[in-house]
Each structure stands twice: as structure tokens, then as C-alpha cells.
């Protein structure tokens, strides 16, 4: 079988110097045709390099026809799970007799600490492989109707966590009913998730996370130094700096790492990435960095209350778990504001989106779509979707595209073929029979309404602070954002009205709604946490 070409940097070949370094800490092994070198669902203990022969990476053992990649000599096997400690989604199988080099993961970690070029090569390849696997629909399967709210919930959870999967729509896929019969599943039991031969009937997000190895039990810690609620850029930055400075740090998030930034197709104005970086890759890199310093990250973990007990801050989770800490950092961000629009509810599950990633783009390929919003999130979505959709209409309430959007992004939109912009305009209605077919757009200056074809609607109209779980535990401004520092009497910078509780990122009153600003908040907050924990000798 022919070796898969390395078109994107996902399948690089090691050079002789890199191989020699690995050989000094690894073991050469002879392999036979059909031998399983890595199995889906298992957490690998070794980093494997192909020395002789070829190895196929297949979606599922027993289905070798579903080949994702073929590797030859000097290529290495594996996925991002090798560095994140999670199970693999794909199986690696030797196609012919050959030889491999097996390096224990602890020895690999020691080696890459002194060889940044090798570390960058491996990490970049694993991140790109995960992106390709998601695009190919490798991994587990979700079977359910596009009109089901639970199907949409599972699809969104998988997409936000960058979990390789494919969706089989009961409404349009001819194979759906046959698969359900083979599995012994009734239509009214859907959605179901199929993974490694197991059928999960309408699982909760936590059950799915546990099944695919996303959620791990947090190590027992009587009292954490720092509890971070929210794993967006601010929360992850705080985790990196807190853990690297010796704080016992745990991060909790109800949905996924990355926050809203994790759904951005490309962030082009973040320092140090001249070609831009996707929100997903930024989130993955930050998570790996935080874990490397010893931070514990638990997803999904939904905070429902903040209490105080025995002189410690206590975060209560929806499963009634209580997590105690000496300090708490609120980085729960905002939730996308939803449109109040006539006819919209009928299409929410099937055609309305609050993120624009590869997963959403694949669902509306070659269809006309509408994006609503005038900020950077809306602009990034429009540019990205223009590469996939037939036409993109960007509806902006303001009079000027650059009013709330970075200038570089506004210029990009004006130069992009396939994007039309309707300024000083709003949506008035969504229409369709079984699926969305068109929207009504009103010009706010003239009052004129026009009908525009649309198969999908992407909404980016600002956010509502996610503070309901706090239940009045801290003071908020008149818009619901957390008051901190100089906005209150006698409080440290970023400290809320409750001593030892800090707020950073989008949830903080007066914050700049940019990724770089959120990261700065999270990093600076650690100094304030140290001052709280050690008043006389903060770093």
C-alpha cells in the first residue's frame, strides 16, 4: 500500500540525528504483518518510529478498508493523546514484516525537554493529525436526527472538544435505519454514540467524555491552592503561570478548553503568530502546556455555586462534588447572546450556529449562509465560511464595518470574493418548511425588507456574562459583569468583592474583549493570588 504523502506537515520524516537520539533511549523490535502496534481506545505507553516496512493507521480494527494514513520508514505513529495522556482514536497495524523503534514515553519527555526542534516537530504533527482526523470523520459515530436537540448537543460537545467523530443523520443518510437495526436500537432511543463496539444511548456529555477518555478523575487534593473556573484563554493562562510557579492548580470547565476563542477559525492578531493560529490549536497548545507544569484540567465539570467553608473557598459542581481551594479565579467568560427572531426556534437545532469551525462548515458546504454580527468573531466566521459556502451575507447593525471590528479584518472581508455585507441592517424573520430556506433582512435607514436565500445562520452578536452559577456571591455591575480591583473599596487588582476570589477575562467588568487581553489578565492574576496566599513575600 502506498505511503500517504505529507501535504500539511502531519506526517513528517525524522532526520538521522533525531533518529539517533531516539535510538539511544528506545528499543528496536521486529514486527509481523497484521500486528497491532497501537490500538484505538488504549492509552499508549510508547512512542513508535517505523524503521522498516509500512504501517497503516485505520479508523477501526476489523475495518482495514478505512485507512486514514500509511507510514513508511522514519515516520512516527500516534496522535495528540500520546502527549495529553488520553486514549487513541485510531489503530496502527503493520502491513508487512518490518521493524520499529519503541521509545518509552517518559524517556521521550526527557529527550524533548533538551531538543525543542524535535518537540516542535512531534507536537505540530500531532495537532495537524487531530485536525485531519476531525475533517475525515474518523473516530466515534453519532447517529441522530438533525432536528433533535440532544443530537445537536452531542455534536457541539464533540466539535468544541476537537474529538474526531462523524455524524449519521437519520433524516438524510440512507444507511441510518440499517445501522440502527443491526445495533438493535429504536429510532426513539436516538441519538446514540457508537465507540469501540459499545452503544451509548443518548449519553450525557460527562458519559461521552468518560467513554472516549476525555474526562479523568481528578487526583485527590484536600485543598487546592487555586481553583480556576473556566478554561478559556484567561483561565488557561492562569493555569500555566500558576502551576509553573508551584501552585496546586485545578481548572474546571463545563464544555471544553478554549472558551469562545477555541471556536475561532483563525486568530491573526495574536502576538507571535504572524501567519495566524486557529483557536483550536491555541487552546490545545495551552492545555498541553498547563498540564506539563502539573495543572489538573477537568472537562466537563459544571460549577453551580461558590461557597465558603472552614476558611476556604468551595466550588460546588453539578454532580454534588465540592472542591476546596485557598483562592478561586473566575474565568467563566460569556455565553453568546441569542437572537430573538420570528420563526427562529423551529430551526435552532438544525440550522443555527454560534461557532464557525470545520465541523459547522462541513454541514453547509456549497450552501448560502448568513452571518449576523459586527465584531471580530463575526468577521472571522465570514472569512472562513467563504471558503466553504456558496455565498456569505454578513449582516451588521452598525453603519460602518470597521466600527467594532479590527481594521485588518474589515479590509479582508471587503476584499474577499463571496462575501456580501449589509450594513445598518437587521434580520427580521427566518423562513422554511422542514429546514431553513431564507431570511428577511431589513435596512434600518430605509425600512426596506428583502428576502435572502439561507440554509444556515451564524450568530455573533455579543455575549452575556456567565455568572448565574455564582448566585450573588460577588458584586456585579449593572450589566452583570464581575466588579474587581479599583471598582471596589480595599480590593487588590482583579480581586472581587469576596476576598480570595478573583475575576479575569471577558467576565470581568471593564475588560478588553480580546484574546491577548484575556491572557494578560490570567497571567497577572497569579501575582495577585500569590499576594493573597503569602501577603509578606509575594514574587
Characterization of this structure:
By secondary structure, this protein is of the alpha/beta class. The protein is built from 14 helices and 29 strands. The strands form eight sheets. Strands 14-13-12-18-29 form a five-stranded parallel beta sheet, covered by helices on one side. Helix 8 (233-244) runs parallel beside helix 9 and helix 12 packs parallel to helix 13 (407-415). The model has no long low-confidence stretch (mean pLDDT 93).
In short:
This protein has 539 residues and is an alpha/beta fold. Helices cover 26% and strands 25% of the residues. It contains 14 helices and 29 strands.
Main beta sheet strand tally, sense and closure: 5 strands, parallel
Q: For the residues shown, what is the average pLDDT?
A: 93
Tell me, briefly, the overall form.
Answer: globular
How many extended strands? 29
Provide the β-strand percentage band.
15-25%
User: What is the percent of helical residues?
Assistant: 25-40%
Termini separation = 58 Å
Poorly predicted parts: none
Number of helices: 14
Amino acid at each position: 500500500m502506498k505511503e500517504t504523502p505529507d501535504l500539511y506537515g502531519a506526517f513528517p520524516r525524522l532526520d538521522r540525528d533525531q533518529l539517533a537520539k531516539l535510538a539511544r533511549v528506545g528499543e528496536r523490535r521486529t514486527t509481523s504483518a497484521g500486528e497491532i502496534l497501537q490500538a484505538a481506545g488504549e492509552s499508549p505507553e510508547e512512542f513508535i518510529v517505523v524503521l522498516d516496512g509500512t504501517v497503516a493507521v485505520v479508523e477501526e480494527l476489523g475495518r482495514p478498508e478505512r485507512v486514514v494514513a500509511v507510514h513508511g520508514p522514519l515516520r512516527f505513529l500516534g496522535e495528540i493523546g500520546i502527549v495529553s495522556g488520553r486514549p487513541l482514536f485510531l489503530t496502527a497495524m503493520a502491513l508487512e514484516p518490518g521493524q520499529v523503534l519503541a521509545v518509552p514515553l517518559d524517556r521521550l519527555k526527557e529527550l524533548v525537554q533538551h531538543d525543542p526542534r524535535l518537540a516542535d516537530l512531534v507536537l505540530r504533527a500531532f495537532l495537524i493529525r487531530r485536525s485531519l482526523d476531525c475533517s475525515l470523520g474518523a473516530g466515534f459515530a453519532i447517529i441522530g436526527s438533525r432536528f433533535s436537540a440532544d443530537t445537536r448537543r452531542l455534536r457541539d460537545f464533540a466539535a468544541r472538544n476537537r474529538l474526531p467523530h462523524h455524524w449519521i443523520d437519520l433524516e438524510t443518510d440512507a444507511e441510518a435505519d440499517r445501522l440502527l437495526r443491526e445495533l438493535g436500537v429504536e429510532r426513539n432511543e436516538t441519538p446514540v454514540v457508537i465507540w469501540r463496539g459499545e452503544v451509548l444511548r443518548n449519553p450525557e456529555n460527562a458519559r461521552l467524555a468518560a467513554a472516549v477518555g476525555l474526562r479523568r478523575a481528578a487526583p485527590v487534593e484536600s485543598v487546592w491552592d487555586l481553583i480556576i473556573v473556566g478554561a478559556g484563554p484567561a483561565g488557561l493562562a492562569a493555569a500555566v503561570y500558576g502551576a509553573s510557579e508551584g501552585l496546586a492548580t485545578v481548572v474546571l470547565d463545563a464544555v471544553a478548553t478554549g472558551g469562545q476563542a477555541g471556536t475561532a477559525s483563525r486568530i491573526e492578531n495574536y502576538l507571535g503568530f504572524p501567519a495566524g493560529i486557529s483557536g483550536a490549536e491555541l487552546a490545545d497548545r495551552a492545555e498541553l502546556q498547563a498540564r506539563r507544569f502539573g495543572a489538573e484540567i477537568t472537562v466537563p465539570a459544571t460549577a453551580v455555586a461558590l461557597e465558603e467553608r472552614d476558611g476556604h473557598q468551595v466550588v460546588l459542581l453539578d454532580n454534588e462534588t465540592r472542591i476546596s481551594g485557598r483562592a478561586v479565579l473566575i474565568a467563566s467568560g460569556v455565553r453568546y447572546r441569542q437572537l430573538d427572531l420570528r420563526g427562529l426556534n423551529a430551526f435552532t437545532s438544525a440550522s443555527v450556529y454560534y461557532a464557525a469551525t470545520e465541523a459547522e462548515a462541513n454541514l453547509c458546504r456549497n450552501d448560502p449562509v448568513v452571518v449576523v454580527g459586527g465584531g471580530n468573531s463575526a468577521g472571522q466566521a465570514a472569512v472562513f465560511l467563504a471558503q466553504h459556502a456558496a455565498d456569505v451575507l454578513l449582516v451588521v447593525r452598525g453603519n460602518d464595518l470597521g466600527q467594532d471590528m479590527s481594521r485588518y479584518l474589515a479590509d479582508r472581508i471587503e476584499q474577499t470574493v463571496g462575501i456580501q455585507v449589509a450594513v445598518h441592517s437587521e434580520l427580521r424573520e427566518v423562513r422554511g418548511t422542514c429546514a431553513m430556506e431564507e431570511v428577511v433582512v431589513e435596512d434600518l435607514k430605509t425600512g426596506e425588507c428583502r428576502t435572502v436565500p439561507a440554509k444556515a445562520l451564524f450568530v455573533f452578536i455579543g455575549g452575556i456574562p456567565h455568572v448565574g452559577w455564582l448566585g450573588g456571591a460577588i458584586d456585579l455591575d449593572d450589566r452583570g459583569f464581575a466588579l474587581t480591583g479599583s471598582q471596589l473599596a480595599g480590593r487588590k487588582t482583579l480581586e472581587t468583592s469576596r476576598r480570595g476570589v478573583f475575576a479575569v477575562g471577558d467576565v470581568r467588568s471593564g475588560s478588553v474583549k480580546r484574546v491577548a487581553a484575556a491572557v494578560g489578565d490570567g497571567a497577572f492574576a497569579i501575582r495577585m493570588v500569590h499576594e493573597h496566599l503569602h501577603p509578606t513575600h509575594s514574587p
